[in-house]
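Hi R.,

Here's the chain you asked about this morning:
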Amino acid sequence: MALYKIPLVLEPQPEGGYLVTSPVLPELITEGDTAREALANASDALEAVLEMYEDLHRSLPVALQRAAEDVPLQLETALAVG
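And here is the predicted structure, written out as tokens:
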């Protein structure tokens, strides 16, 4: 399993749930009823987009970074409490 460092935008939807997109990978679009579900779906969506790029013999965007697995990975996230 490869790790990728990718910015994600979770946008609350008027009907509920979250839309997930990425400014560096416009093909990545998914959603979820909760933020947790949306992020889990983003992992599946990223895998599908990576397969699409490979099938089309396209280079990945330069801004998409593969994370080194032997160094600490710094993440910024939102956590709900209470």
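One quick note: The two ends are 33 Å apart (CA to CA).

Cheers,
M.
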